[in-house]
Amino acid sequence: TGEVKFCDISFRYGDNMPFVLNGLNLHIKAGETIALVGPSGGGKSTLVKLLLRLYDPLSGCILIDNHNIQDIRLDNLRRHISFVSQDITLFSGSVAENIGYRDLMSKIDMERVEHAARTANADEFIRKLPEGYKTNIGPRGSILSGGQKQRLALARALYQNSSILILDEATSALDSRSELLVRQAVERMMENHTVLVIAHRLETVLMAKRVFLLRDGKLEELTRSTLLGGHH
Ligand code: ADP
Ligand code: ADP
């Protein structure tokens, strides 16, 4: 599972606004990793927001495993698809609670949390923080670094059995060790997840099987030679 199809999607933020997406098509096979690149303001985040149903398209449809996402209950959709970025929202609670938050109201399976944390390279800070330690300091602050938040989000995705990962690569540089740990975790998870990565760095782009440029509301597949030549 984890096949995603965008069929002829058009979208704009308001009646008199320009189209952000205009007749866009994309078919991601289950288990495939694709990278999305393009100019700032080109619509990459918008595409992700439509997939998560923060907005609905003006026309066209989005299918996950051949189900129209309009027919999927929002909580199921959000469990199926995990959004991973350095800006994920944590709630006040331990790292373990943030990883297992799907079961917060029932009972978090600590063994699964530990296993997910190991796979996502999040185990070093899950142990450092005592149970009940608050991950948030105020509405914006956090004691976790951007890279740690990405790894926490990956662990959360594993815990809740998401089949689709959406990665928003940091535009600001993480330190190189943290970046390596994120990349390594993602590479592990690529083996059994569908991955859509909004990529900014060439090495991230090259992790993907296929690369698409989002420009003028449409996608254009880029070949490896175009990418390495650096002219598009
Ligand atoms: P990217 O992620 O590629 O940088 P975005 O999807 O964030 O691009 O933005 C695409 C276009 O939509 C931009 O022109 C942006 O200003 C506009 N946009 C994004 N979000 C909104 C919004 N909530 N309301 C109005 N316009 C928006
Ligand atoms: P992101 O693209 O990661 O959502 P942004 O910094 O682009 O983050 O946008 C922050 C917020 O402002 C988002 O909720 C986005 O939808 C909104 N936004 C972005 N561009 C515009 C715009 N041109 N007009 C109105 N809202 C916008």
Automatic annotation (TrEMBL):
Localization per record: Membrane
Boundaries of the shown chain within the full protein: 436 to 667 of 677
Descriptive protein name: ABC transporter domain-containing protein
Coiled coil region boundaries: none
Residue ranges of every copy of the ABC transporter domain listed in the record: 4-232
